[in-house]
Amino acid sequence: MSLITKKEIADLHEINQENCISIFIPTHRGGKKVLQEEDTLSLKNQLKDVKQKLAKNGLNGDAITKITKPVQDLIDDSSFWREQSDGLAIFLADGFSKVYTVPVYFKEFNYISNSFYLKPLMPLFVDDGEFYLLSLERRNVKLYECTQHSFTEIIIDDLIPESKRDRVGFDYEEKNLQFRSGGTGQANQAMYHGQEAATGARKNEIKKYLRAINDGLAPLIREENKPMLVVAQDPLFDIYKEVNTYSNLKDENITTDFSNTDIFEIHELAWDKMASVFDQKRKDKIAHFLEEQGTGKTAIGIDKIIKAAFEGNVDTLFCENKADIFGNYIEENNSISVTQSEESDNAISLMNVAAIKTFLNGGEVYLLDKEDMPNPNSRVNALYRY
User: Which domain holds residue 206?
Assistant: First the structure.
């Protein structure tokens, strides 16, 4: 599962035309709302609004129909709506269209200017640290490299034994690795079905197999320090911890019924456990902002921040989510004017400009609720590099 990349953000930002159209709607992965075509209706409403804005901008009916045809085609494609995530982002210009299905919830919104509105995509690139997910399903061991919004399988077939037989030299009866969850052995230990518990000789056989997996993966990940989360039943994970040599193995595992759970569900379960690990960075950035207030290394207000964003001096930008600041900015003389709405004199979203310039210059952009902003008295806060 791949998502929009930083290069694609840069490519979208490079497109400058008189009518660059950005459309965002929330979508649903399935269920009643899909069957009732709520997502389709949301896009129809946005398309109607976009057409009215284009007409106000002076485009005739034929030109409007031509530039918005990709959206109408999506509305008419019933199969498209059966394969959605949490949000849909559409970018249109003369001779150009791009559609992204992404795991970010958007409020319904459209924007027409001389460049695309890309700020709502910024959550895809923060609090999204990489981690490994090792699935120890019997006879089907897999390793994934994950972020919050994506996972990619790393092919390890040539690094690990294909089966336990390959490692210990004789048939392994699957029933001896079947577990009864919630067992009531001594000290709440998990209980095994089968001819014997995973102790003694049998446990040693399992340990040999898991050690072979660990040793096979070691050259691949030895130099890494990404957290690794294991998907396995508790008894198997307990044994794997004994043979593990990877330095950043998480103490807590995911237990699931592999027969009824696909990788998409497992990935969501994994992120539930990993989110707090990566959210710490945001908390640290806010704490740093508060510590640096009054030293010249922080700023509030778009007039100061947008200039610093162009210069690459913004380390972290905090934007109030679902809020905006409209106006005009001339980079050559750092001239800025702020208006009250996007309807005023070809005004553009200054917050969008600051966000994308910060992002493309290597900074991080957080969209936060007002009460979570470092300084909630301003819709935009910045932590400077110097």
Answer: 131-278
Confidence of residue 163 (pLDDT cuts 50, 70, 90): low
Q: What is the pLDDT of residue 276?
A: 87
Residue-wise pLDDT for 224-255, tens only, equals 989 999 999 999 999 999 999 999 999 999 99
What does the mean pLDDT of the chain come to?
87
Q: Is residue 6 within 8 Å of 13, Cβ to Cβ?
A: no
* Beta-carbon-side half-sphere exposure of residue 232 (alpha carbons within 13 Å): 26
Q: Are residues 274 and 299 in the same domain?
A: no
Asked whether residue 112 falls in the same domain as residue 160, the answer is no
CA distance 127 to 113: 29
My answer on whether 115 and 167 are in the same domain is: no
Q: In the structure encoding, which two tokens stand for residue 341, read together?
A: 């709405």
Spell out where 258-359 has E strands. 298-300, 314-320, 326-330, 335-339, 348-349
Same domain? 15 vs 73: yes
* Inter-helix orientation angle 61-76/38-56, to 10°: 170
3-state class of 370 per DSSP?
Answer: helix
Q: Which residues pair with 316 in a beta bridge?
A: 364, 383
Helix/strand/coil (H, E, C) string of 88-108?
A: EEEEEECCEEEEEEECCCCCC
Say which residue the tokens 């030895």 belong to.
Answer: 222
User: Long-range CB contacts (< 8 A, 24+ apart) of 28-36?
Assistant: 28/84, 29/84, 29/85, 29/86, 30/82, 34/81, 34/82, 34/84
> Can you tell me the mean pLDDT for 301-318?
95
